[in-house]
Specification:
The chain contains five helices and 17 strands. Strands 1-2-3-14-13-15-11-12 form an eight-stranded antiparallel beta sheet, with helices on one face. A five-stranded antiparallel beta sheet has the order 7-6-10-8-9, with no helix packed on it. Strand 11 and strand 12 form a beta hairpin. It has one domain. By secondary structure, the chain is mainly beta.
Length: 313
């Protein structure tokens, strides 16, 4: 419900953002005032849709979907799951009987399956039976079982999509920034499910520096996950590449995740992969407008290699 605000209240909001630019203040006030629809889909789990029309957010039109999972959601637990090949997020979710979910981290779309060849000492990183099981190109551990390693450049440096990790242990979320001095730091993270992704946008309430490059500065559909100070988990998607929704740059995504109350937030795979699924909703559960078919409809899901799902215990 849209709540009318007095001039005094609006002035107070403006003063809250006095340390940022006038343009940023206007964007944040528009965020607060914009109507939104929120529905409880399970105890402790809510789903919100927000449509910014007439170029009201960052001088653009935007279409957003947000799932919030509070501590009251005791019947459900968050998991990171894989597909042995490539499947749509909605298919992966239905296979696991998930209540809701989003696409997760980066993967190889075409060509031979990644084989995650050898570690720095020339030792195979995976058992032969695991090689080629998953097309992820980032470190991925599911149910304490190693699925894939981070695929490195020849100089073994980290890529942007390996700048941080999501750790889920008994449904609790932790976001971790990479350790440049330890290329195998992910192995030491304690959690049932771990996947690398990035960049990290907010950590312990502090905005992190965003790389100044085309990937981060251009507007695209984006998927993100974050956590509030009270432990509430936020799953987020913004559509893009359409006149109805331009998508976000990473700095814009960082700002929105902060406005959502996140003290930790990290970027996931976006573009044509960006998808949010909610069980029992029309269009096979797809509630956003995936862009891979270049149409403003719910049919443009891209097949992906992994997803973050809310699954009944």
């Amino acid at each position: 419900m849209l709540i009318a605000m007095s001039k005094k209240q609006l002035l107070f909001i403006a003063l809250l953002f006095a340390t940022v630019s006038v343009k940023s203040q206007a964007d944040q006030i528009d965020w607060i005032l914009n109507p939104r629809q929120t529905k409880q889909i399970a105890k402790g789990v809510s789903w919100t849709q927000i449509a910014f029309t007439d170029r009201k957010l960052f001088d653009t039109s935007q279409y957003l979907n947000v799932i919030e999972i509070t501590k009251k959601a005791k019947r459900y637990r968050l998991h990171i799951v894989r597909s042995d090949s490539l499947e749509k997020t909605s298919q992966i979710a239905q296979t696991h009987h998930a209540l809701a979910g989003i696409n997760a981290s980066f993967f190889k779309m075409r060509g031979p399956d990644p084989d995650n060849r050898k570690d720095l000492n020339g030792v195979p990183k995976l058992e032969p039976s695991n090689i080629g099981r998953n097309r992820s190109v980032v470190y991925f551990r599911q149910n304490d079982s190693l699925i894939t390693e981070n695929i490195r450049d020849k100089d073994s440096t980290r890529k942007r999509n390996q700048a941080g990790s999501i750790v889920i242990n008994k449904g609790k979320l932790q976001i971790v920034k990479d350790d440049h001095n330890n290329l195998n730091a992910e192995h030491q993270l304690k959690g049932e499910d771990v996947i690398s992704t990035g960049p990290v946008m907010i950590l312990n309430g502090v905005d992190q520096q965003i790389p100044n490059d085309a990937f981060c500065n251009a507007r695209h559909p984006r998927t993100a996950i974050g956590k509030k100070a009270d432990g509430t988990i936020v799953l987020f998607v913004v559509d893009g590449r359409a006149k109805e929704s331009a998508g976000f740059s990473i700095p814009e995504l960082q700002q929105i995740m902060r406005l959502l109350g996140c003290v930790d937030a990290i970027n996931l795979d976006g573009g044509g992969s960006t998808t949010m699924y909610i069980r029992d909703q029309p269009f096979n559960g797809v509630v956003n407008f995936p862009s891979d078919n270049k149409k403003w409809d719910h049919e443009g899901e891209r097949e992906v290699a992994n997803a973050i799902l809310l699954i009944k215990k």
